[in-house]
Amino acid sequence: MRKLGACAAVVAASASLLVGVSGVASASAADCAHGANGFVDIPDDLEGTVVANSPGRSLTVEVGIVQGVKRGWARAHGSEAALGPGDSVWMDWSQDGGRTWLQCGPFGTSTYKWSLTSAAKATNPSPNWRFRGGAYFNGVMTLTPWY
């Protein structure tokens, strides 16, 4: 299972960017870790089927079977360089087509690694139930399209 260490600096930096952004609920890793809000913890190296990706650096929304349920999660992964201290990943989850959302994360790393995931959330056939991945790479934010 994912080790959820203290990500205070990453959370504080991300929270400051959320001020004034319409539709975003206050967020922290605690909003979706250890089963909160129906999310489940997954290993950082879990790979699924890619359903959305960002241009440039490798950020994807992936789906797969986790604990017997089809779930989605965000995954940041190094293609040319490893992820390092200060890099983080999160997943936005919406029940109204992306008008408002809960941000699951950010989940950061204090070491160098090739993959970092958010917690996973069950998928739903409703067109209003949407996921979007987000990440900071070297202080630059990137997002996937909504899935």
UniProtKB/TrEMBL annotation:
The keyword Signal applies. Residues 1-27 form the signal peptide. The keyword Signal applies. Keywords: Signal. This is Secreted protein. It comes from Amycolatopsis vancoresmycina DSM 44592.
